[in-house]
Amino acid sequence: MLARNVASDRAEAKSVFRVGVEESLAEFRELVASAGAEIAGEFIQHRDRPDPATLIGKGKLQEIAGAVASVDADLVLIDHELSPSQQRNIEKEVNARVIDRTQLILDIFARHARSREGQLQVELAQLEYMLPRLAGRGIEMSQLGGGIGTRGPGETQLETDRRKIYRRIRHIKQQLEDVKRIRGQQRQRRESVPLPTVALVGYTNAGKSTLFNVLTGAGVLESAKMFATLDPTVRGVTLPSKRKVLLSDTVGFIRNLPTTLVSAFRATLEEVQRAALLLHVADVTSASAHDQQTQVESVLKDLEVMDRPQIRVMNKIDLVPQAQRREFKNTANTVYISAQKQLGLNDLLSTIDDHLKIDAIEHMRIRVPQSEGKLLSLIESRAHILKRSYRDSKVQMEVDAPESLARVLREYEVRTRSR
Length: 419
Prior knowledge:
The chain is α/β, with parallel strands linked by helices. It folds into 4 domains: 2-107, 3-Layer(aba) Sandwich (Rossmann fold), CATH 3.40.50; 113-179, no CATH class; 194-355, P-loop containing nucleotide triphosphate hydrolases (Rossmann fold), CATH 3.40.50; 361-412, no CATH class. The chain has 15 helices and 13 strands. Helix 2 (21-34) packs parallel to helix 5 (101-112), helix 5 packs antiparallel against helix 6 (116-130) and helix 6 (116-130) runs antiparallel to helix 7. The radius of gyration is 27 Å and the shape is elongated.
């Protein structure tokens, strides 16, 4: 059972992220499908301001209660964040379990988390969401945590549940600190070799994982379901200049992304904060592309990375009519591609090359003895060779080499004689 409330109060009117009712409802349907629920009915309500007790108007609430009874629905989903009291009041009226937008997203994250780190992050967000909602739910929460802590003398069930949750939250935060420390050590090892990180960011289901797989061959799960990628993956990519970079796939963003999730996933999103360049992947076919861009930028502001160089990657051009596709023009900061059909990828890699200042390309003339086979092999793999000739058992070359290689080649450099 799906119930959707649209409140048009002043706070909503001032919201930075504005979408039409149909686009918003379509997105909510995708969330519901990703959670594995079957939709039995939909309701939309327009109000001047939300009801403080139930969010939804009394008449509409009675209508929903009747529909719940008629189709024997066991769940009501509301595309709005509910206060604990609003959630309890609606449940009493409709006689069914009620889940708001935040809890639905948390449930989807819990289904898709694969790594131990991802599972810990989701559990932390769920527990922090649950804490203020414990009142009146003592019986339901009595099994929370599965044997974590025991009931102390003189404690009420509510106090016991709260104590268990606080203890579990402390334990998870400690484990996540350990993960953060290990991730930091891994990053230090990576940073000892000058390989800049390029992070993929964007709205959920924009095609980031498909692009990641095409560029790296990593085999990350690709799915039309929202939030298919939760666990960060880092792989190497070779650019046209033969520089190597690390490409990082990250969790997709969405409008009204719960703050508990942004907080819980900070360890994961550190890859974004450390990146030298951001690839903002967007679905060019989406009617809400501009609004989705605004939402992604809002999260990037929260992460304090809006000053980082960005390339707008407009994906899924294969789904656009050919006549309209001719109007798409690449610029210094925007590239049109189809990750699925592998269109425009060379242009994207060249644009990444142009934006990266780390390990900058240096033009050199060098003369290397042919006996230096290992060095010649290194030059072949990491530099772009423009000219090559052989003389006196030496190889003379004109190359564009990354700074890290140029330092090694400095002793073989041919200096131009001044007149």
